[in-house]
């Protein structure tokens, strides 16, 4: 909880007190974006390194390497679920999310989990061969943080820009989470299904690739 909460406080001070540009729902808006983004960032950052960091364990135990990034994703998802539960409780107290649309939140979370699995497994497959890929991924994540609409409402952009902007799955998923949690609107079901199906197929393909590369991982220098 601590990191997104501290980040939210800093942003509130900057926008509300220093710049004087905060809107009435600024805090809930920022907090939903940060919590959803923290799940993305944690899973990709930790999971992409999982096979590389498990090098010694792979030498000692006969386990499919895909287990290590999947366990990391599961661990970070459990932590996220706790934070999300607290966030939903806070929003309900503040009067947000009190509509049947809240029932669609699991669909948003499933789509995001599929997206996380796809990105994390593809990175985890290649990081053992190119360890510096970790730093590339970290820098891309920093860029994506500012391109995912966490700090601003991307729906106010020009329609032509929005079409490109929301091709970014993280931006799309954060927007849909806000639709449900803040605005009591049903999400884009077609878009969520498309993200889930495509990312699930990519995740399965990445898992199959990791299995094929299984015999090479123990031979790589640590």
From TrEMBL:
Return the Pfam families for the record.
ABC2_membrane
Some GO term, biological process aspect, for this entry: which one?
Answer: polysaccharide transport
* Record field: transmembrane: 65-96, 102-127, 139-161, 189-210
Q: How does it sit in the bilayer?
A: Multi-pass membrane protein
Q: Could you name the domain of life of the organism this protein comes from?
A: Bacteria
| UniProt subcellular location | Cell membrane
This protein's GO cellular component annotations are:
plasma membrane
What name goes with this protein?
ABC transporter permease
């Amino acid at each position: 909880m601590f990191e997104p909460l501290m980040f939210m406080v800093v942003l509130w001070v900057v926008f509300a007190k220093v710049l004087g540009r905060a809107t009435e729902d600024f805090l809930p808006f920022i907090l939903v974006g940060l919590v959803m983004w923290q799940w993305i960032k944690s899973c990709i950052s930790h999971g992409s390194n999982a096979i590389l960091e498990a090098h010694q364990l792979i030498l000692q135990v006969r386990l499919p390497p895909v287990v290590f990034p999947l366990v990391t994703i599961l661990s970070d998802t459990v932590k996220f679920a706790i934070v999300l539960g607290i966030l939903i409780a806070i929003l309900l107290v503040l009067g947000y999310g009190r509509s049947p649309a809240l029932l669609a939140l699991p669909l948003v979370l499933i789509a995001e989990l599929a997206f996380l699995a796809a990105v994390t497994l593809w990175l985890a497959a290649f990081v053992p061969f190119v360890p510096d890929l970790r730093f590339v991924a970290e820098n891309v994540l920093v860029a994506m943080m500012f391109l995912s609409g966490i700090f601003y409402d991307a729906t106010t952009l020009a329609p032509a820009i929005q079409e490109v902007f929301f091709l970014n799955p993280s931006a799309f998923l954060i927007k849909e989470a806000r639709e449900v949690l803040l605005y009591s609107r049903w999400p884009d079901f077609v878009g969520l299904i498309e993200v889930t199906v495509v990312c699930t197929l990519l995740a399965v393909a990445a898992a199959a690739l990791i299995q094929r590369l299984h015999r090479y991982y123990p031979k790589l220098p640590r």
